[in-house]
């Protein structure tokens, strides 16, 4: 597993990732492995992150959406 924190482009359908673009490459999502929400203290205006663990045609990754931004957080072995 490699931890990352790279902004990426994601094409989604109703909020679910279906295609990831990174470093000029396209990764097509083949399988949704898991999804969850991490919310900080709402009263402290901490951000909400929606995480997805997916299997792509180039390996498994973990990414999250926060606001209008997508971030690659892990590349899984």
Oligomer: single chain
For the sheet with most strands, the description reads: 6 strands, antiparallel, barrel
Low-confidence stretches: none
The tally of beta strands, per DSSP, is 6
Domain module tally: 1
The whole-angstrom Rg is: 12 Å
Q: How many helical stretches?
A: 0
Taken from the alpha-carbon principal axes, the silhouette is globular
Helix content: under 10%
In angstroms, what separates the terminal alpha carbons? 5 Å
The overall pLDDT average reads: 90
Strand arrangement, major sheet:
1-2-3-4-5-6
Strand content: over 45%
Topology:
Blueprint: E1 2-13, E2 16-22, E3 25-39, E4 48-56, E5 59-66, E6 69-76
Antiparallel strand pairs: 1-2, 1-6, 2-3, 3-4, 4-5, 5-6
């Amino acid at each position: 597993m490699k931890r990352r924190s790279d902004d990426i482009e994601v094409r989604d359908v109703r909020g679910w990732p279906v295609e990831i673009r990174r470093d000029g490459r396209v990764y097509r999502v083949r399988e949704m492995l898991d999804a969850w929400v991490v919310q900080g203290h709402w009263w402290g205006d901490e951000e909400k992150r929606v995480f997805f663990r997916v299997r792509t045609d180039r390996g498994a990754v973990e990414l999250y959406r926060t606001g209008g931004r997508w971030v690659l957080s892990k590349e899984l072995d």
